[in-house]
Write a structure and sequence with these properties.
single chain, alpha/beta, 7 strands
Length: about 250
């Protein structure tokens, strides 16, 4: 096996993807499975088990869990360790976008955004990180957003949560890097998942595309490839970074 092939071979690796039943999470799971990984998909969607069964290979697991529940996350991580013995890669992908002008956003929408977009990735990283620290190795990839870098109208809670994810990523990378774990983030532009297509349909989407130097939105598979790279042997010296996949939107 060449050095290149070895770097991107995930045979024998256990990969946990939150929000893995659809969209970016499903694309990430699909790609890792194709590279030989054992996948665990965690999602509130009851169909997550069926999604796991469609992945290349066998023995993948779909777990139904609410990421806002600490006890549910503890149970999920414990069951993964019991079944597979370790978690080699964590992709924190689950997220929500509750949008409204800052002067009218409800406290409930703010709290839900922070619970799913920030508290949950912290809790999962903490729980899985403890297991990775025991093993002396691991890769964590957090899904942030271009909204972590630039202001977007109506996105006050979303922007705040994603900016915090980037900061959290840096702290975890600093603390855990010396102990064999790298932690990085990915900040995509709009991604053409089913939800993304609906949210940015019509002229509002076309107007935004005209502001992106590449004149298009990202595909889920492109974000999955970024995650695969950051989790691979090729990225062993990439730690605490925020990989922006936005077609150049935030360089302007």
């Amino acid at each position: 096996m060449s050095a290149f092939d070895a770097a991107f071979d995930f045979t024998g690796k256990t990969v946990l993807v939150t929000g893995g039943a659809a969209g970016i999470g499903r694309a990430v799971a699909t790609l890792f499975a194709e590279r030989g990984a054992q996948l665990v998909l965690l999602d509130r969607d009851p169909g997550v088990g069926a999604v796991a069964s469609t992945l290349a290979g066998s023995g993948h697991l779909g777990l139904v869990a609410d990421v806002t529940s600490k006890s549910a996350l503890e149970q999920a991580v414990a069951s993964i360790i019991e079944r597979y013995g370790r978690i080699d890669v964590l992709v924190n992908n689950a997220g929500v976008a509750r949008l409204a002008p800052a002067d009218s956003l409800t406290v409930d929408d703010w709290d839900l955004t922070m619970a799913i977009n920030l508290r949950a990735p912290f809790l999962v990283s903490q729980m899985v990180g403890r297991e990775m620290l025991k093993a002396g190795s691991g890769r964590i990839v957090n899904l942030a957003s271009q909204a972590a870098i630039v202001a977007i109208d109506g996105h006050v809670a979303y922007c705040a949560s994603k900016a915090a994810i980037v900061s959290m990523t840096k702290v975890l990378a600093l603390e855990w890097g010396p102990r064999g774990i790298t932690v990085n983030a990915i900040s995509p532009t709009v991604v053409e998942t089913e939800l993304g297509k609906k949210a940015w349909a019509g002229e509002v989407g076309e107007a935004l595309k005209r502001q992106i130097p590449t004149r298009r939105f990202a595909q889920p598979e492109e974000i999955a490839m970024a995650a695969l790279y950051l989790a691979s042997g090729a990225a062993g010296m990439v730690n605490g970074e925020n990989l922006v996949v936005d077609g150049g939107f935030t360089i302007q």
